Each structure stands twice: as C-alpha cells, then as structure tokens.
Amino acid sequence: MSTSNDNAPAKKPAAGKTGAKRAQPKSARRRSREAALQGLYQWLITGDDVATIDAHMREQEDFKKADQAHFDALLNGCILEAADLDAVLARHVDRKTTELSPIEHGVLMIGAYELKHCIDIPYKVAINEAVELAKSFGGTDGHKYVNGVLDRAAGDLRPAEVAARNKA
C-alpha cells in the first residue's frame, strides 16, 4: 500500500526562486533596431553604400522577424540625415561624434532619429530602447553615456513632451 497521496496536487517550484530571469521574446521593433544598428556600424566602419548594407542585412537569418518598415526608416533615415543627427548630438556629447565608438555613435543616431521622427514612440521608450541596444552591443557602461546624451537631446527634439513629463 502506497503512503503517498495520489490525489494531492503536484508541487510546483516556486516562481522566481532560481534567480534566473526568463528572457522576453524580442519584439519586431527591437529586432529592426538591432539590424539597423548593425547596418549603421557597417556604414560607419566601411562607408559602404546604403543599398549594399540594406541587402546584406536582409540576408541575415532573423531579419524576417524584424519590423521591416521601421528598419528601412532607421537605416535610410540615419544615413541620409547623419549630419543633422550628429549636429543634434554634438550639443550633448563630450567629444566629436567621429571619436565615439561606432556602436555608441550608431545607437545615439538611432535614438536621435526616433526622438526626431517617431512621435508615436514616447521619448522615454525611445531612450530606453537605445539604452538596451547599448547594453547588448556596446562597451561596459556605454549605456549610461547613451542614456545621458539622449535624455539631454530629448529636451531639444521633444521639448513639449519632456516639459509635460517633468511637470507630472
């Protein structure tokens, strides 16, 4: 005769006890930002033309999971408006943008582009997404630099939204 209670519910491990954090699946927008960053890195390092970079990025295995329209806007927009974006960033960086690491430069360009053109994305979200890119691809503590620069740039690019947030 068994001493176990077959009718008793099975014990489940307590959630969160292992300390492991389950990774959230990447959104299509996050994937588009990652692909755009890789393309901008290639552009900043090699100076390749946009069509070559675009074709290369579309060949990547996970590209089909990205928001392709957002990728197109980011890659083409950042390259087309590189001088204007660098002018915005120059007011808030501690050195010439050409002296930044290509990863941080690319992340800042994407953040500035989204702040300037993607009004449907709240400015705090645009900054946070850039910080996450910097954490994933940039150097140690580069995300802190990106956060500070884009937070100050948001005051230039989204003054009403920043002012409304600061009053709340």
UniProtKB/TrEMBL annotation:
UniProt entry keywords in alphabetical sequence: RNA-binding, Transcription, Transcription antitermination, Transcription regulation
Gene3D superfamilies the UniProt entry points to: NusB-like (1.10.940.10)
Disordered: annotated segments: 1-33
Family: Belongs to the NusB family.
Functional description taken from the UniProt entry: Involved in transcription antitermination. Required for transcription of ribosomal RNA (rRNA) genes. Binds specifically to the boxA antiterminator sequence of the ribosomal RNA (rrn) operons.
Superkingdom of origin: Bacteria
Protein name: Transcription antitermination protein NusB
Bias (Basic residues) ranges: 19-32
Keyword flag Transmembrane helix: no
Presence of the UniProt keyword Metal-binding in the record: no
Composition-biased stretches (Low complexity): 8-18
Protein species of origin: Roseateles koreensis
SUPFAM superfamilies tied to this protein: NusB-like (SSF48013)
The NusB/RsmB/TIM44 domain, residue ranges: 31-154
Lineage: Bacteria, Pseudomonadati, Pseudomonadota, Betaproteobacteria, Burkholderiales
